[in-house]
Amino acid sequence: MVFSCWSAKGGSGTTVVSVALAVLLGQQSDAGSVFVDLEGDGPTVFGRPEPDGPGLSDWFAASESVGVVAIERLERPVADSVRLVPRGRRALTSERRARICTERLIADERPVVVDVGRITGNGDSEDLVRRCFAEAATTSLLVTRPCFISLRRALSLPLRPTGVVLIEEAGRSLGRRDVEDVLGVPVIATVEVDAAVARAVDAGLLAARLPSSLGRALRDVA
To answer: What is the pTM of this model?
Structure first.
């Protein structure tokens, strides 16, 4: 079971949603969960230092002799019942390796959350890799604010999510029904902007003390 979280515009809260979802899934699964970090901000939001050593981008750049089993050796514990596959410092440039990786993740007995990051639709190699992860997931989640620019960008992309995680802000003129009407997919979770979440991220405690508002909002997704 693979969940991909992605956005069409920066600043949508994708990494926070991804981390929270991985924590909830890890709590529910006897085997724990896996967080795959394509964006690079996962360790910070988990409250951990940047991992030393190779990451997923290094596996992408490796020779064919480095098989898919090597991905599991990249995992690092970052929270109770959650293991992180770090991004690494190289570019993600191989669609073929991306497909191999997604097949391995789908076959994993543990629930997997992929922080895909922003998909732009510009067609460059890294964007195509991100799109591959978003499309291959069992559940593909667009994380968005009820913002005209965000919705327009999402609508212009050549892929559609399974559902939407809506980051709800007071004072916005657009709401849940508007988002569903524009995108043609259901809003399956609504996360209210909450200062407690920002404080938990700033303190490095999001995974250790998941704010109740965020947990309630995402529990049905998990």
So the answer is: 0.95
